[in-house]
Structure formats: C-alpha cells, structure tokens
UniProtKB/TrEMBL annotation:
GO terms for cellular component: membrane. It is found in: Membrane. The chain crosses the membrane at residues 12-30, 36-57, 92-116, 146-164, 176-197, 217-241, 253-279, 299-322, 343-360, 372-395, 416-437. This is Sodium:neurotransmitter symporter. PROSITE patterns: NA_NEUROTRAN_SYMP_3. Keywords: Membrane, Transmembrane, Transmembrane helix, Transport. It comes from the Bacteria. It holds the Pfam family SNF. It comes from Flexistipes sinusarabici (strain ATCC 49648 / DSM 4947 / MAS 10). It is a multi-pass membrane protein.
Amino acid sequence: MKREKWTGKMGFILVSVGSAIGLGNIWLFSWRIGEYGGAAFLIPYLIFVFGIASVGLMEEWAFGRSQVKGAIGAFEKVFEEKKKGTGKIGAALGFIPVAAVFSIFIFYAIVIGWLLKYFVLSFTGAFNVINIPEYFGTFTGTANTIGWHAAAVIGTMVIVFFGVQRGIEKANKIMMPILFVILLILVIRSVTLTGAMDGIKYIFVPEWSKLAEVKTWIMALGQAFFTLSLGGATMLVYGSYARDDTDIPSASIQAVLFNFMASMLAALAIIPAVFAFGLDPAAGPGLLFVSIPTVFAKMPGGYIFGILFFLSVVFAGFSSSVSMLEPAVEGFMDKTGFSRGKTVLLLSIVAFLVGLPLDIDMAKFGTWADITTIYVLPFGALVSAVVFFWVFGADKARAEINKNSNIRFGKWFEPYGKYIFVFVAFIVVILNIAYGG
Ligand code: PFF
Ligand code: NA
C-alpha cells in the first residue's frame, strides 16, 4: 500500500502544532510561569525551546522523513545500513519511544474523558449547582469515569482510523483554528475582569531571583521538551509523512512560535480570571477541574465561556492524543501488514483496557502518569537523538534538515547536534530522575 503524506507544508505544520499544543500548555505552563518567576521564567524557557528543543524537533522530523518510516522501522533501517545484521537492535530501540507515547496515550485518554465530562457539565449549567471542589474528588478514581474514558479513546480511534490526510490532518484543520479563536475570546474576557491585574502581574512581573534557582532551569528545560512532543516517536512519525520539499527549519520556527503563542494565550485566559475571583492558580488537575469551573460559576457570562473553555481543551487534548496513538499504529501496521482499521481497533482496545485500572485508582493513575512522562518519554527523546546524530550520522542529519530549506545550517550544526543536543537530552533524563520532574 502506498504511504500517505500530508497535503502540504501547511497541513504538516498544523498537525505538529496540534500535537505540541496540549495539556502541557494549558495546565502546566500557566502555573509554572507564575511559580517560577513570571516573565523571568520566559528567559530559560525561550532559550531551551529555541536553542535546544527546536533542534530536537527538526531532528525527529528529518529522521522520519529521511527513512519514510516511524521510529521502529527508521531505527531498524539506519542500524542495518550501518552494519548488516544489527537491524533488530535498531527495531528494539525504536520500540522504546513508540511504547513511551503509547503509554502516555493510555492516561491522557483518561484526562480527555474527564474533560468531556466537564464539557457536558458546562452545558447543563451544573457548575452553578454542584459543589465544585468536592465533585472532582468524587468523580475521578471511580467507575463513573469509565464511559467518558471510553468516549475519549473512541474519539481518538475514529480520527486515526481515517488515516493521515482524511483523519489526523482533517481533524486538526477543524480543531486548531477553533482552538485559537476560543483562546482569544477567553483572553479578552479574562483580562477585562475586575481584579484581573493581579493575575497579569503574576504572569508578567519578572522575579529575577528565581533565575538563580536551579529548579527554574530544570522546569523550563523539561517543559521545552514536553511541550514540543519530543520523545522520539510522535514528531518522527509525523515527519515520515512530510513531503521532501517541506522546509524543516522554517516549519520548526513556525511550530515553536504557534506553540508558544498558545501557551501565553492559555495563561492569559486562565490566570487573570482565577485571580479575579480570589482562587488558587494551582497546577494540574486542580486548576482545570476546580479553580476554572469555579471561575465560570461566578463570572458574568460564565455559562458560555465555560462551554467554550472546555471545548477548546478537549480539542487540544484530541489533537495531541491522535499523535500519541499514530506512532504505535504506524509501527504495528508496518511490522504485521495489518490494515489500518484492524490495527487502530486493536491498539485502542489495548489502550482502553490497560487504562481501566487507572480509572478507578487515582494513586495508580498518578504513578503511571509520572513514570511515562518523567522517565520514559525523555529517554525516548534521547535514544532517537543518539541514533540520528551518531548512528545515522551528523553529516547526513544536517543534509536532511537542510534539504530544500532556505535556512541552511553550516558545518557547526553537526557537533551541535552530536554533542550539545545529545548531551542536553541526556541531562533531561538525569535531572528528571533526580528531581522527579
Ligand atoms: N505536547 C503535548 C502537550 O504539551 O500537552 C504532550 C505530548 C504530545 C507529549 C505528544 C508527547 C507526545 F508525543
Ligand atoms: Na494538542
């Protein structure tokens, strides 16, 4: 069967931006920017995103495009070409990043399930009725989440089922523009609330002393990798569907900018509103499922804004979850020759069943989420960087990234990728182990 491609450069950037923009932008970034020095946090964040993570993005895309395969097949080819008979080792290594994002998909679908539930709650006007802080605790960790979890898996499954162009690209073409429009509307609402100023200060007033703390830099570095979906499978498989005339360096600049814009918009949509109502700009689930619904219960027009908000987060979630399922689907199809339909069905059932115990046990859920995002995903990013820059070779890596690009990286890029990027990717793994994210 002929391999599918994105319709063009636009589609490629859009799906990649869709993968990049997710819960990381919404529930991690807005909290971290406040917690780690406001505008001062942007310094390490932007250094790491532009100087380091963007190289990882180009590496994964170019790796996939050069081999026209996802991680398993690409690593296998590169190993086999280097030394006959070692292909199996490559395939085994390629399995790591694919398993990493698939494991993330397993719990991410559960979170999308919660979001779907909250989207429906916003519709029924329930935020004015239920006890919001109590509700989240009584809903999550119970069998009541299972149906919503199933809906999230099915939604992802349907998109991936329709394939690269008619599924993933089409869905992103619908969801991403709506996501940005909604975020803009929410920002306007949020910053015009009385008392919004404290939230704006929380985001923008730089607390320079935070730059002296190691933790600030660690958080910025981890955020830079996660936010661009670096892990050696997602961007790699998306790159494998890119046409040869795609300008990878310029696409990377655009994807990074859109992703950053989404993070800033999300922060401005959330934090000022949370402050305006004297709530806690907590991290993670507490922000999305407690502080924010409380805001919408109190805000003028909160009914409509609540619906819009949860719709936009659901879109951010699905555009990422499809990018977590696709690498496993591509790998499985490539290895077994199964049809896309059968593969998607099989892997979705597996993801759902493995996720079931996490539905009803929040401690297990937390452990799973931590292990996959903090330890396994960064390891996948490191493995792919080593295979690309060292096994495939830094000279060929540079040529592939430069291919058909207006931006041409000079010879310096080779040691930069081979030593500096690989070293930093290694440091990310070590720091995450040491600091637990
Ligand atoms: N970039 C996504 C976010 O910020 O939420 C998360 C993500 C998606 C990570 C896909 C890894 C991945 F492969
Ligand atoms: Na997304």
